[in-house]
Amino acid sequence: MKLLLLPLLFQALLLTSAQTAAQAPAPGPSGPTNVTAILAKAGQFTMFIRLLDTTQEASQIDTQLNNSNNGLTIFAPPDNAFSSLKSGMLNSLTDQQKVQLVQFHVLPTFISLSQFQTATNPLRTQAGDSGAGEFPLNVTSSGNQVNVTTGVVNTTVSNSIYSDGQLAVYQVDQVLLPSAFFQTPAPAPAPVTAKPKKGAKSADTSDDDSDNTGDSSDASELIQLVFSRVMIGVSFVATFYMIQ
């Protein structure tokens, strides 16, 4: 009888151990936070991971996470969001614009989904201050839905990929394009024609006056010459008659 009970007791111990293991929380990630590893585990973020690596923003994010208490929030567009972009758009961006594009998806503080309801717009991103109107990012929250607007793109947060109180990673349905990439440069100002200086104008006027004065002097000299000759002639005639 005892021999029959031993297998049953052993099976009960195995079942109890399995249930205990199932109820235990999954172990957290070991080592420092690695954003590309988080995105790779989630899947469907190949293009965004490539941008993070080529711009070296991935290492910047990991360094900031492991050496700061402010935390970060990342909006991650999946591969199909990049596929919907205009053909050749990414290749047309400069290296600096690619860095700005990645930074535009990163907020310099940790924001949970519930905190979006009280967030102050426009949100500041790693791309720079939004006050200049070049990198505005506005977020509105209604219930469980979070809408993100850039002035060029309107999209929603479709999934929470990762959150540990320091880093929050959210999936967005579209690539967040900043309005700075689509602003038309202001036309160059027309050349201004320099006005003549007053001194130069006075000099010209003086030259004209000098010319007029010279003409008057010549006329006076001519009159004096004619008058002198007339007087000589009159004197000669008078002398002739006196001799007679």
From TrEMBL:
Residues 32-176 form the FAS1 domain. Residues 188-217 are annotated as: Disordered. One of its GO terms (cellular component) is plasma membrane. Its main location: membrane. GO terms for biological process: plant-type secondary cell wall biogenesis. InterPro entries: FAS1_dom_sf, FAS1_domain, FLA_A. The keyword Oxidoreductase does not apply. It is a lipid-anchor; GPI-anchor. Keywords: Cell membrane, Glycoprotein, GPI-anchor, Lipoprotein, Membrane, Proteoglycan, Signal. Residues 1-18 form the signal peptide. The keyword Transcription does not apply. It holds the Pfam family Fasciclin. It is found in: Cell membrane. Belongs to the fasciclin-like AGP family. May be a cell surface adhesion protein. This is FAS1 domain-containing protein. It comes from Saponaria officinalis.
